[in-house]
Please model this.
Amino acid sequence: MRNVGDRIRRGRRIKGWTQARLASSLGVTTSAVGHWERPDGHQPSSENLVEIAKHLSVSVEWLAIGCGDMRAHGSCGSLQSVISLSAEEEMLIKRYQGLSSPSRALLVQFIEALTNSAESTVKAGVARASRESKPSLRPSSIASLITPT
Model:
């Protein structure tokens, strides 16, 4: 395989996916995938390259530079070798990957709102504690600040 585009096309065809299917799973246009696969087309961003590799079940190393094993088997280019996930985290990722792009975007917005809300709650609790002249917050008191009431 001479270039990234050839490797994207090969991985996609082996998986049995159309350009439209890959585009949908990545949240990009079909024409973007077409451009990536053309010899004179644009190369995907590094973020998209990692996502393409994940969705096509190929190693990032093989996809990016054509070296190593094509399949992601815990090699240096796979997500599994970079981080260790609990069973619950793996389940969440699999369910996330099964969502449509609009549903994914909605879920990300929800998580950001939830995170911002928890951070605001902690900040408010810290401010309240300093107003009450408490010398420090113990871990148990921090946990009580972020526990929903």
